[in-house]
Amino acid sequence: MPSLIEAKGLDVYRQGKEILKDVSISVNKKDFITIIGPNGAGKSILLECLMGTFSPDRGEINKKDNISIGYIPQNFNPDNSMPISVERFLMLRKKIISEELRVISEETNIFSILSKKLSNLSGGELQRVLLARSLLGNPELLILDEPAQNLDIKNQLNFYNLLNQIYLKRDISILMVSHDLHMVMASTKQVICLYHHICCSGEPQAVAKDPEFISLFGNDMAKMMSVYQHTHDHSHNENLND
Fold first, then answer.
1. DSSP codes joined into one string, 206-240
2. Range 25-37 burial, b when 16+ CB lie within 10 A, else e
3. 122 in Cβ contact with 150 (< 8 Å)
4. Is the separation of the CB atoms in 186 and 198 below 8 Å?
5. pTM of the prediction?
6. Are 240 and 162 in contact (CB under 8 A)?
7. Class of domain 5-18+28-78+140-226 (CATH, top level)
8. What is the rounded distance in angstroms from the CA atom of residue 94 to the CA atom of residue 113?
9. Domain residues of the chain, as ranges?
10. Bridge partners of residue 32, in order along the sequence
11. pLDDT tens profile 36-93
């Protein structure tokens, strides 16, 4: 089966500093891949390369013809001077019919806040709105860059559970960068540990035992991750309200 996106031998340099070195990655149909690594490891640059918004210095990137991608950026700060509602914000991106808006709003649990001002949303509400926006047009691949970094633990859990439900329900692949290592075990099929190069990759339980993972994150994190059970094959029913 052809990959949705395949990168081979990516090198990226900035001001003479090596950001990515010989990085290869393949995202296939129905994959759920999480990229982890320390700050400055090159995770966001890798996503930019894959999406085509940044050109690597060396390497090759191939995409499926006419691939549709939904994206949630690492930082999104609504302009307080722009009094736009959630519904209007969603309608700006693409021409969508009311039925699609209703279905996605219910799927992401934002139907009750469609009339709310975007700049007045809580962190959890805003992330669900961005998730809804990324799902418009029924993308084949969803790319998320640290989607829960500014959320408290309750809303992190709610967001990842919602993301997992969407993955199970839809015919979609997910590629995500995350610092939330303790959440990775419950939601992802494959983990890629990146520190300028790919240190290790595989199923979460296996990666947690890899010496390179332990050298980057320490024994305590490895032990904590090792006790999590991979719950990817069943859905969650936790309350998704903020």
1. HHTT-HHHHHHHHHHHHHHHHTS---TTS------
2. bebeeebbbbbbb
3. no
4. no
5. 0.86
6. yes
7. alpha beta
8. 19
9. 5-18+28-78+140-226
10. 174
11. 988 889 999 999 999 999 999 999 999 999 999 999 998 888 877 668 999 999 988 6
